[in-house]
Amino acid sequence: MDLLLLFATLLLGALLGAVGGLFGIGGGIIAIPLLVLAYHQPQALAQGTALVMIVPNVLLAFWRYRQRHPFPLRTALAMGAGAMLATYPAARLAVALDQQRLQQVFAAFLLWLAYYFWRQGRRARPQAAQGWPQRYLPAVGVLGGACGGLFSVGSGIIAAPLLVRGFGLPQAVAQGMALALVVPSALVALLTYAGAGQVQWATGIALAVGGLSTISWGVALAHRLPEARLKQCFATLLLLTALLLWCSSGG
């Protein structure tokens, strides 16, 4: 990687870290379309490369989040175990699929997420549910792990609303537990993509270094903005990236 490309990648990682901190994500949802469109990587390679950035970003976010919002580690481990069971076969499927088809499915996934978050941004905060039995928590991990393995992203985004609406957890606790789910899922997915030769390490490490430098700034900004506005901005960002990715795939 030449110096100019390295500098550009570090700046991109810094931007993605700030966005990830602002919206409570690892940054991969934005990184993957950019790696496809700007770096001309196939979809599976882009997903594997993004995981190099996602893993340390999520680890840092999880550590800081749990400092502010402690939650039972046993519960998080149960979800993490479910995520690990589902991540490996989903990741194997992702690296075996036709790349154009995988790119279109990923774009459709982003469109669905955009619709969901736009609706949530227009609604008042939902009342806490009575709560499903705790024994169903590993199932949340399985669903999140399947999304994380297939798309490299989305496990925490899927898990947090389920924990709030289904199990009646406070939003802050749900987001922290969702990060606990993402950590093992992302590690398993990274190892799987790397084993299949679908990781460009130099690009991923540069993105990770840039991202780690700005996550805290993004988190601080997130606490100053209304939650509904954050969700609508996130939905708009997802919509634009999904449309660009879909058009580039010839869908």
Core attributes:
single chain; 251 residues; mainly alpha; 11 helices; globular; cell membrane
Brief rundown of the structure:
The protein has one domain (3-248). The chain has 11 helices and no strands. It has helices at 3-23, 28-37, 43-68, 73-96, 99-122, 137-151, 155-165, 171-195, 201-212, 215-222, 227-248.
What this model shows, in words?
- The chain crosses the membrane at residues 44-63, 75-95, 101-118, 139-160, 172-194, 201-222, 228-247.
- The protein is mainly α and 251 residues long.
- It has one domain (3-248).
- The protein has eleven helices and no strands.
- It is globular and about 50 Å long.
- 49% of the residues are buried.
- The mean pLDDT is 82.
Overall mean pLDDT: 82
Strand percentage: under 5%
Q: What is the helix tally?
A: 11
- C-alpha Rg (nearest Å): 17 Å
Helix share bin = over 70%
Task: Outline the low-pLDDT stretches.
Answer: none
Task: Give the end-to-end Cα distance, rounded to a whole number of Å.
Answer: 32 Å
| Count of the separate structural domains | 1
Determine the oligomeric state from the structure: single chain
Strand-pairing-aware structural class: mainly alpha
How does the overall form come out from the CA principal axes? globular
List how many beta strands DSSP finds: 0
Biggest beta-sheet profile: none
Helix/strand order: HHHHHHHHHHH
